[in-house]
């Protein structure tokens, strides 16, 4: 499905790829037969089906007005607006973000990894291909709202998958703000984000950790993995000596070149919100001992 979407020239083929992707991930979400997982799969299906219908609708409107189905020739303003909202729905950008934390919470860690990296790739590719005709104001406001909301909502969570979902939303904000000005920066941001998120998800999967309280005892089982988790989380937060700072630096630089210094300042300040919960995750993972007795058997007893 992904290959079909990213290599297609025709809107119908791109839509087919997106549909195949959605149908392929559904059994993975619902695999555990838990009511929560079934609910997540249903939510995911409904949102993605609606978004795909909107993609098809926008491309048909464009074809109706311009007489062509080429992805790069999305010139009609109304259809580019509809497409932006459809892709925002597929990715989980604010204001279409509500489904994403719930779905991620309902699925297992490996599936969550797929949802936050691989499933974001085809919609982002479509944005990349149509980036020259998208509305910068709309995308900038969506991006700022995403960074703000991803930071604020993540502050109060104890479930690690939900925290990672909100972190994904705020990272998407960074990707969306720059896509009309320099699409290649969006892609480098996405690749680095995928790499770091994959590290976090696979580490948590190895430790069998899904809650903050069980993360506190994880250092007894795998001390070296824990140290790596600390560094990866700080890198995701975008602290300077680490890799995650690079895309943010480049994006801020590009925004100031485009005379959007105010937008760059606001989005940087908003990313401090998400820095707080990354620091809390890192703190729980490495520095603290739990204040209360846990249900987990400590391996060194």
Automatic annotation (TrEMBL):
Membrane topology: Multi-pass membrane protein
Domain NADH:quinone oxidoreductase/Mrp antiporter transmembrane: 8-273
Localization, UniProt: Mitochondrion inner membrane
EC number: 7.1.1.2
Catalysed transformations (reactions): a ubiquinone + NADH + 5 H(+)(in) = a ubiquinol + NAD(+) + 4 H(+)(out)
Segments forming domain NADH dehydrogenase subunit 2 C-terminal: 275-301
Protein keywords: Electron transport, Membrane, Mitochondrion, Mitochondrion inner membrane, NAD, Respiratory chain, Translocase, Transmembrane, Transmembrane helix, Transport, Ubiquinone
GO cellular component: mitochondrial inner membrane
Protein name: NADH-ubiquinone oxidoreductase chain 2
């Amino acid at each position: 499905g992904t290959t079909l979407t990213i290599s297609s020239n025709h809107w119908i083929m791109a839509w087919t790829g997106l549909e195949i992707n959605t149908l392929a991930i559904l059994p993975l979400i619902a695999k555990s037969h838990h009511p929560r997982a079934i609910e997540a799969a249903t939510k995911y299906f409904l949102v993605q089906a609606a978004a795909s219908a909107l993609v098809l609708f926008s491309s048909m409107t464009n074809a109706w007005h311009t007489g062509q189905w080429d992805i790069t020739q999305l010139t009609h303003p109304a259809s580019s607006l509809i497409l932006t909202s459809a892709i925002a729905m597929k990715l989980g950008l604010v204001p279409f973000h509500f489904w994403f934390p719930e779905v991620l919470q309902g699925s297992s860690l490996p599936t969550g990894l797929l949802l936050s990296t691989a499933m974001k790739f085809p919609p982002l590719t479509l944005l990349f291909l149509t980036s020259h005709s998208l509305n910068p104001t709309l995308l900038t406001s969506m991006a700022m709202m995403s960074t703000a909301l991803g930071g604020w909502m993540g502050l109060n969570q104890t479930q690690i998958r939900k925290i990672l979902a909100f972190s994904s939303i705020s990272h998407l904000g960074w990707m969306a703000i720059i896509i009309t000005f320099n699409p290649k920066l969006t892609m480098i941001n996405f690749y680095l984000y995928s790499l770091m998120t994959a590290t976090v998800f696979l580490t948590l999967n190895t430790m069998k950790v899904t809650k903050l309280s069980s993360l506190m005892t994880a250092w007894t089982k795998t001390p070296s993995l824990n140290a790596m988790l600390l560094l990866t989380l700080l890198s995701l937060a975008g602290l300077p000596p680490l890799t995650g700072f690079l895309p943010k630096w480049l994006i801020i630089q590009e925004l100031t070149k485009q005379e959007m210094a105010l937008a760059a300042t606001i989005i940087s300040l908003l990313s401090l919100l998400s820095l707080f919960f990354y620091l809390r995750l890192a703190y729980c993972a490495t520095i603290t001992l739990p204040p209360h007795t846990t249900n987990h058997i400590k391996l060194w007893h």
